Protein 1
Amino acid sequence: MTTLDDLPLRPELRGERPYGAPQLDVPVRLNTNENSHPLPPQVLTALTEAITATLSSLNRYPDRDAVALRTDLAAYLSATTGVPLTYEAVWAANGSNEVQQQLLQAFGGPGRSALGFTPTYSMYPLLARGTGTRWISGPRRTDFELDPVVTAAAVAEYQPDVVFLCSPNNPTGTALDLAVVEAVLEVAPGMVVVDEAYAEFARPGTRSVLHLLEGHPRLVVTRTMSKAFGFAGGRVGYLAADPAVVQALQLVRLPYHLSALTQAAARAVLAHADVLLATVEEIKQQRDRIVAALTDEGLTVAPSDANFVFFGTFPDQRAVWSALLERGVLIRDVGVPGWLRVTAGTPEETDAFLAAIRAVCADGRALRPTMVAEVRS
Ligand SMILES: *Cc1c(COP(=O)(O)O)cnc(C)c1O
């Protein structure tokens, strides 16, 4: 049998594993921050009509530049943040992961580097690896926040071609103070990418980094329809930036990368933004309920502006993760010693998760130290 070792694979890919959040068949799945609410019936009707209308022209390539979709996305961002944007400043692809990959294709690559602040989104180093970009891991405070002075100093020291900031940060949940982004922009020699995948879930008073776009042509804000819009299966992510950044990405994107079906479906969903954002409010209530309940349980909980909660600390978080799975609740162990992440979903899912975690804490067996010692001090 042929194995990977028999193939002339790039050396940096040898021994590596593919991205892999477990896709297990359990009753309560709260491990990938999806929106637990299926699209409502009126959105499904609009989707069916929009897709049907494209079918007679599927023999033709789609609009390469997805102008109608980008126009709708620009209007959505402007309406929800008050920042005026036109389609020239917006770009879309198959998920924000593809947008970020295109950014590295254009601004990273062999001989170049990208800097992120761990723990953060596990896809950044993988995208760097795939594009031949050197990945550098920078420091985060023990409360997982980014300090403006320390963060800017890391950027000044490493001189990365691309900086990845994630706000709210996955897996920790907290949004960035705009002062951190401003401090980084002051010293960054290259592009500064702020991933706002969870921006719609922010607590009141949290401002979007879109407010800093004006006057910062090297700032990029990425967003996605995978979380707030409940459209993870549709695969649509996008960015807002100076129009010159969009022109740069048009040099590296595959022609016709967004199918006609995807473009039509995304526009139909976007036309119902108000209905979908109503479920975001329900999810935020569940998020706050989880934060309060876990705090009552005596656990440490990171403040969350997202649709998930990061909590701990456990002597062996893997044991707690397994004990929850035995009770039919799948959450995420992102590999930060002592900590686990749970997605906020429906009220019933919150009930099931809270009952399971209380049972695990009451039982106590999974809480006993089985590892050497707690890594965080
Ligand atoms: C879920 C997530 C995304 C979304 O990726 P898509 O490719 O748009 O589905 C992007 N960034 C972060 C930090 C995420 O957690």
Note: Residues 117 and 139 are 6 Å apart (CA to CA).
Protein 2
Amino acid sequence: MKQKSWLNSFSEKDVTNEALFNNRRQIVSSMGLALGAALTGGLIPLSAYACKADKVIDARQLKPNSWKEISQYNNYYEFSTNKEVVHLLAKALKTEPWTLTIEGEVKKPITLDIDALTQKFASEDRIYPLRCVEGWSMVIPWQGFSLCHLIDLVQPGSEARFVEFVSLHRPEEMIGQRGGGLDWPYREALRLDEALHPLTFLATGMYGKKIPAQNGAPLRLVVPWKYGFKSAKAITHIRFLKEQPRTSWNIAAASEYGFYANVNPQVAHPRWSQKRENRIGEIRKKRTLPFNGYAEQVASMYKGMDLSVYY
Ligand SMILES: Nc1nc2c(c(=O)[nH]1)N[C@H]1C(S)=C(S)[C@@H](COP(=O)(O)O)O[C@H]1N2
Ligand SMILES: [Mo]
């Protein structure tokens, strides 16, 4: 399925280096669709989720962080809890060959090579802010495709309610997996309607180059309205499930890492306020926006839910 580029005026091939990228880019954000009320039980009519995003200029005009800032300050516990050494340790990771398996409650389960996968979908550009639950943020220019295109391909069964993302488990190359830490492999999940939202993205590139290992090569989820830990790196399996699965961070500390984890300045982390954030490379703290600035596009999915309870 070939989709028209999400950002017509800007071809991915143009993005050969950072400076050129910054000159040519036009910031646009996806309006998303009116996805309707929160889905807590009923069948999901897939036709309601035609994977199309309206194109609008993003009034926020987000300025991307530099390649260096993005690729040398990383949370990736499979390697280290020290953000500044992750990029060095991640050199040990072999990302070729790589296969992705999609299984569970789907009509067309599939295992395919990452290159075959990326060729199926036209590359789109997204400039998304990433807000870590720890209180820092950066703006990252990604290339990839909306997850909903992939979901269209495998066709969830009528029982599917949740989508689980499983990261690579390879202690030989991921030194942080040799000790305890998290419950490996790293697992995250979304409700099916969240997974189908056109903002939900699978990244294969960054700044027009292949995504670096430390940022989640070769395939990484990006959910811009949720805290960064929801955006799993190095994905090997995507599973469609009937029930809400447990996720690695939630198992480690449920009170700090909720399943929903929507960016919410009103709800403090048990150990710090979430009202402000430290944008990497900037001196003054910024106000944190509800849903990381995407309330208009995503808030309707949570109608009727108390988001201080469904943390
Ligand atoms: N597999 C895996 N994915 C992960 C993590 C991790 O430790 N392992 N850390 C998460 C957290 S806490 C954040 S903030 C982001 C950081 O992404 P970045 O390093 O690309 O900025 O990745 C998320 N995805
Ligand atoms: Mo994070």
Note: The first strand starts at residue 28 and ends at 30.
Protein 3
Amino acid sequence: MAARDARQNRVNRQYRPETLALHAGQTPDPTTLARAVPVYRTTAYNFRDARHAADLFALKESGNIYARLTNPTNDVLERRLAALDGGIAAVSLSSGTAAIYFTITNIATVGDNIVSANNLYGGTFTQFDSILRSQGIDVRFTPVNDFAAVEAAIDENTRALYVETIGNPGLDVADLDRYAALASRYNVPFIVDSTFTPPTLLRPIEHGADVVIHSLSKWIGGHGAGIGGIAIDAGKFDWSDPKFKLYNEPDSGYGGLRFATDLGDLNPAAFSVRLRTVGLRNQGPTLAPDAAWTFLLGVETLALRVERHCENALAVARFLDSRPEVSWVKYPGLNGGELAQKYLPNGAGGVVAFGVPGGATAARRFVDSVELFSLVANVGDAKSLIIHPASATHSQLSDDDLRKAGVAPELIRLSVGLENIDDILADLDAAFARL
Ligand SMILES: *Cc1c(COP(=O)(O)O)cnc(C)c1O
């Protein structure tokens, strides 16, 4: 175990992202010497003897007990993505949505609140607005990058700040450094959903994030072939302030353990240790190892794919910008201003939004006029995708919330894929001709 960790630490320090995406987190299986990561389809693991079992259960020794908590396939995925994003540990979960929910509830409890940007993925907005609130965790929405509003919303019960790197689908870039500065002034962790910006584009931990979340279902998996999520622990937040009750009050499920102070060497990873030993162990949102394996396959080509997604998306944004049938275009790489230049110098992601004159009716007609683009509620597939958010992904939001979240009725969202760019542009061109 120690030799393995030393080797992995060396890999993580020595290599650049493209190399980490292929090597970080894996030591080829010593029994079979299999080069690819094996899928460990097992529910449980043999204990060497009763003593070994007792030590594992008492957290005196680390190792596999039961696959709801750990699995060697998921372990490679977790170590690889932690290395890519510059974290010290990660926990994979059954969906991006689960990663968000179990991250928040691993920090905040009844009577607490979090302060979140309001330009969120539709499912996250609903989770925050109705589910968390119904469970006694208040969510205070503020316009992204309105730091006076953020500061006014923070009080003594605030337990986290939350943003998406590029808001969905308005595509505003969050000023991570300024959020991180506020989070640190008020001693709360800064949580960043970086799904739209995989680690070869942006590493939020370098800008002060304490927890980075990805939906693996999007660009990291990259092929629209499965659902999963991950929470990456930067390992920098000190949880010992008593206001974090979940970390400082003795945990009755673990013999009175206090996660902020009683984990010894593992204390810097208190967030991810608790997420695994309480979230996964007792609430069960585990990622299946087969899904973890498909995501590992995606990670191997992440850098290459993301580069092409960005290149194609920029070409699409420029094309739309030149069309008389288009009233406006939003792509951080085209008109995202200083924030896009600062945070996204390597590419601004694969999503482009634009509006057409004629409101929701015209937008829905356009969506029905493309052929190559698939009409689906997804982003980050290798294939090009299209949707009209106001009537689909964001249809649960009220008109007022839609306006606040930057979801105009005429907004069309494209997730630009890896097809030949000439075919992509020709499809858009033909759709305009059909209108
Ligand atoms: C898709 C998505 C999610 C939710 O992830 P699932 O894996 O679909 O549960 C959360 N945030 C963003 C930005 C997303 O695009």
Note: The longest strand covers residues 158-164.
